[in-house]
Amino acid sequence: MATDTETGAPAPAPSAHRLGRLYLRRFLRNRLAVAGVAIFVLLVLFSALGGLLTPYTYADTDFVALTQPPGATHWFGTNQGGNDVYASAVHGLQRSLVIAVSVSVLTVVVAAVIGSGAAYFGGRIERVTLAVIHFLLVVPSFLILALVSHRLAGDWRVLIVVLTVFGWMSTARVIWSVSTSLRERDYVTAAEFMGVSAPRIILRHLIPNLGSLLIVNLTLGVVATVLSETALSFLGFGVQTPDVSLGTMLADGAGTVTSAPWLFAFPAGLVVLLTVSMTFIGDGLRDALDPTSVTGAAGGRR
């Protein structure tokens, strides 16, 4: 425990405001993380406001401009059906972002509750929960995801549910491992002595102390979900026409890479920018929240 150098008394714990400033300073020292935030903000603005810059929507068809290369009328060109690729990219990025963020948030929430709950209760509940987690981890989830989403006509809402159901196990395993040490802390023992209920202890004392781990997993979960949704849609098991996602655009453009490269290049570029930006942000958050990292240690010495 830290002590005051003059009196020998325990040093006061830093306030939440001071910790927030410290974490922010560490994060801002990471140039790649800052670049990731800038790229992600630009992508969000593009998905939210990009449609205002064109008179076309992703569903509009221009029959006199089939597979037309980028130009003044259609900035990103058109596809085989005469749909504007720019408008499709805006809508596709928007749809992929909604799916990725929703799945990442839901996955972290489910994993936090189940993982910390299993660690707190221990005993039979812990053993059964871990057995279920380990079983689901060895199940070929991608095949099940493909079959379920295909049978349900590729509805993006169903895709969110399915990706969440098969995406929380690894995070829950990590959270359980960390929570096994947190359940022995003094503040948990004090809460139990005061008669605080188990659900309240889990929600008010265990999960908040997993904040840094949850934030990092939330950020990196967006990357994993984007890749999963893109892969499923690319293979025809994810978002289905007439809706559009980055995965469906990649699938449409894969067969015309040589003859109409813009159909594949623009959605591929958006996927790369999105995954790279979130990876940079996740690495930056992990370094900022971990005082043992090089960036965190450097920020803490200033």
Describe the structure.
The protein is an all-alpha fold. Helices cover 68% and strands 0% of the residues. It has helices spanning 16-28, 31-49, 85-121, 123-138, 141-151, 156-165, 169-182, 186-193, 198-206, 211-234, 246-254, 262-289, 294-301. Helix 3 packs parallel to helix 12 (262-289) and helix 10 (211-234) runs parallel beside helix 11 (246-254). The longest helix is centred in the middle third of the chain and has 37 residues, at 85-121. It starts with 15 loop residues before the first helix and ends with a helix. 37% of the residues are buried. The model is unreliable at 1-13 and 295-302 (pLDDT under 50).
Brief summary of the model shown:
The chain has 13 helices and no strands.
Topology, pairings included?
Blueprint: H1 16-28, H2 31-49, H3 85-121, H4 123-138, H5 141-151, H6 156-165, H7 169-182, H8 186-193, H9 198-206, H10 211-234, H11 246-254, H12 262-289, H13 294-301
Rg calculated over all Cα atoms: 23 Å
Q: Helix count, per DSSP?
A: 13
Strand content: under 5%
Overall mean pLDDT score?
Answer: 83
Summary keywords:
single chain, 302 residues, mainly alpha, 13 helices, 68% helix, 0% strand, elongated, disordered N terminus, disordered C terminus
